[in-house]
Amino acid sequence: MHCQTNKVNEIERFAGFHRNKIILAVVLFVSLGLFASCRDVDVEALKKVLESHKMEGAKYVGSSTCAACHEKEMKEFKKSTHERISIPMEGVKVEGCEMCHGPGSLHAGSGGGKGNKIINPSRDPATCFACHMEKKAQFNLPYHHPVEEGHMSCTDCHDPHGLNAKPWSATSMQDVNEPCFRCHKQQRGPFAIEHLALREGCTSCHQVHGSINDKMLVARDANLCMRCHSDTYLIGDHASRLRQGTCFSGECHVAVHGSNFDKHLRY
Ligand code: HEC
Ligand code: HEC
Ligand code: HEC
Ligand code: HEC
Ligand code: HEC
Ligand code: HEC
Ligand code: HEC
Predict the structure, then answer these.
(1) 153 CB less than 6 Å from ligand 1?
(2) How far is the CA of 88 from the centre of ligand 6 (A)?
(3) CB distance 162 to 168 below 8 Å
(4) Across residues 61-77, what is the average pLDDT?
(5) Contact at 8 Å (CB) between 51 and 126?
(6) FRET partner for 77 with CA separation of 20 to 30 A, picked from 144, 163, 191, 232?
(7) Ligand 6 pocket, mutate which of 174, 178, 205 (most atoms under 8 A from CB)
(8) Ligand nearest to the CA of 215
(9) Cα–Cα distance for residue pair 172/187, rounded to 1 Å
(10) Closest ligand relative to 94 C-alpha
(11) What is the phi/psi pair of residue 88, to 5°?
(12) What pLDDT is stored for residue 233 in this prediction?
């Protein structure tokens, strides 16, 4: 099959601006199977994961075997993006439940059970990284959520089985940011004066996998705000103020997440 990897990169670069439209396109592409089989899998990384879980000799048996005992996960999984992915690897196709949980013959053959020859990526994101290599690099940036440190998991923000693998695929502000509010209650408000930026999602200002900027910000200076407020230079004496510090420093708009007191978000 002709490989479409470039297309994927292009889409990813664009995605920051047209997230919803692009994701829809990506989902369509995936469901057509156009590039699913071309994604790079780090086969060596995958092998290391299997070894570390002492799963030598385990074989891929297919999701239908899992369905017998895990009806709930099976049902949810039918709606997920991952359900449509299949990756050819050394004579087998890595797909379904086993793409994240590893080959399941030994687990299934011995009646299943917790900790019984099966990977649970909740405690070890390594299987996710085998396919999402660029995410590993993001989590290695100086400011990141402590997933690799073992303090939290990909599944604190992503539902691995269900439809909501994308935390941004929601219709209201509460829904978009809900996974974040579970741990960051201060930013939930409610605020008498909202900053409407939050309706576009926390990710309009934060790179939550990781960033080179403190607080995982997209940018550490006025550029963070200028992406939406490019006309602000024209108002009052903003040009001279910006020489003294950035928009959200000092006496300026420090209440970036919303305020109960000031409509200009100064406190
Ligand atoms: C995209 C990766 C991925 C795929 C595909 C996947 N899972 Fe999971 N699964 C996970 C993760 C991550 C967890 C840990 C969930 C958590 O942290 O709550 C998990 C947890 C589980 C658990 C343990 C649940 C618990 O409450 O302890 C079972 C059982 C399970 N998965 C079965 C399945 C079955 C059956 C399939 C196929 C229908 C499947 N999984 C497909 C990633 C995946
Ligand atoms: C014969 C029944 C049976 C089959 C077949 C089976 N499992 Fe399980 N599995 C269990 C039981 C029982 C548990 C423990 C209870 C639970 O977590 O739901 C379990 C637990 C799990 C867990 C959680 C392990 C942990 O340490 O947290 C995962 C993940 C899992 N199974 C995935 C799979 C996958 C993937 C398949 C198909 C390759 C599969 N199971 C096939 C019975 C089975
Ligand atoms: C065997 C390869 C493979 C594994 C393992 C895997 N993924 Fe994926 N994942 C993909 C592919 C392919 C796509 C679709 C293309 C894309 O968006 O990158 C995808 C898409 C996604 C998306 C985009 C959201 C969506 O629904 O479209 C998220 C989030 C995601 N994966 C998270 C995870 C997490 C978390 C794990 C580990 C629990 C994981 N993936 C494991 C291959 C994999
Ligand atoms: C703190 C919450 C959080 C954690 C933890 C997290 N993610 Fe994400 N992830 C997000 C958000 C939010 C987005 C959407 C990004 C955006 O809109 O800019 C996303 C997007 C994605 C995407 C699809 C879009 C893309 O950028 O390619 C993948 C794949 C993904 N995450 C994988 C993972 C994996 C793998 C892990 C664990 C190693 C993980 N995520 C941990 C919040 C999280
Ligand atoms: C499971 C809990 C959890 C979830 C869910 C979560 N975070 Fe976090 N967040 C943390 C932890 C833990 C830290 C690290 C705190 C530290 O190092 O002091 C953190 C740090 C941060 C920081 C940097 C704070 C600082 O003081 O440096 C930002 C910004 C942030 N998270 C935003 C988000 C966003 C946006 C989301 C939703 C996409 C999210 N978080 C989801 C637990 C979570
Ligand atoms: C308009 C941009 C913007 C949006 C949208 C945004 N933040 Fe922030 N956030 C910031 C800035 C700027 C800082 C750093 C403030 C500083 O360093 O003085 C910050 C800091 C944080 C911190 C560190 C603690 C603090 O208050 O300084 C957390 C946690 C956080 N944000 C979480 C979130 C969550 C959760 C969301 C979504 C509900 C969100 N942010 C949306 C701009 C934003
Ligand atoms: C994703 C787009 C977006 C980003 C990024 C953003 N804002 Fe906003 N902001 C808005 C929208 C929308 C409004 C409400 C409409 C308006 O007044 O322009 C608003 C309103 C405001 C207001 C109140 C308007 C007033 O008259 O005073 C202030 C102050 C503000 N933003 C400051 C900031 C600061 C500081 C940053 C950077 C940390 C920032 N914004 C980043 C979208 C954004």
Answers:
(1) yes
(2) 41
(3) no
(4) 94
(5) no
(6) 144
(7) 205
(8) 5
(9) 16
(10) 3
(11) -70, 130
(12) 64
